[in-house]
Amino acid sequence: MPFRSPLLAALLLAAASVCRLGAVPYGAGDHDVSEYMMGSVTVNIIFPESSASSPDTEDWTAFRKASVESSIRAAMDWWAAREPEARLSFVYNVTTQNTDYEPISCYASAAPPPGGCSEGDWIGDIMTKMGYSGSDYFEQVYAYDNAMRLTYGTDWAFTIFVADSFMDGDGAFPDSYFAYTYMGGPFMVLTYDNGDYGVSGMSAVCAHETGHVFYALDEYPESGCATTERAGYFNAPNLNCQNGGTSEQCIMRGQLAPYNTPAVCNNTRLMLGWKDVSPANGVPDIVDLTPTTALTAYSPDPTTDNTP
Length: 308
Fold this sequence. Notes:
Blueprint: E1 40-50, H1 62-82, E2 89-99, H2 119-129, H3 137-152, E3 156-163, E4 179-181, E5 187-191, H4 202-213, E6 230-231, E7 236-237, H5 257-260, H6 266-272
Helix pairs in contact: 1-4, 2-3
């Protein structure tokens, strides 16, 4: 499942050596909504519902929305079980929002053909209706993620838009995308049918895409991955890419097997920030760095007090 990103490497947080659970991590700005996969996370799940004024070909039912939510929760539980010392926990904020578009009929591409709509049209429309402003729809979703992060008191936040595709022939958008994520957030987009994976494969698809939210790169050959790519908080190389890399099974290779195994390769772990989980204390490097304090001598000494 491809991600679509203007960046291949993570933006490093300045001096972010401590992750305080229940608060925005030290040094994190408004665009730093998912810098490494540790701590508490707000997962916003939005079900777009086309309004009567739009071509209304899809209508969510309570049963199908419950099925989607259950699958997403299973995907998050899957990640939490992969590294207990990351102390992952999730808060779910689920809502149905009207839009003047039928999302599944819009292109994932930002440049649809004449007369067509794009993700920016319906996502921006939803964010505007929810009261979030910004220079573009990305900034609107960032504003929403940050507001929900503060509301629920979590370290991180991201949004999952699930487009209803129950009546759609191939379970995909017109340009064949059915699941994609922007590297590091602020959101991912899924369809109900997940293309050929079907709704039964949503947990695996969502788990893979969540890897991208926290800066893990694709590893399957069709993605065009390369071992020279780097990403994540530690700027780790994509050495398990199937285009010339190692052959370790991994969720970032897609398909159902790595989810069912389950499998997360060492390179993906580094991209997620799971580096050097010490057997001695079970704490990953990012949150196991003791702050260094240095006192510089000043001459002449202004005081006889020898305590800091």
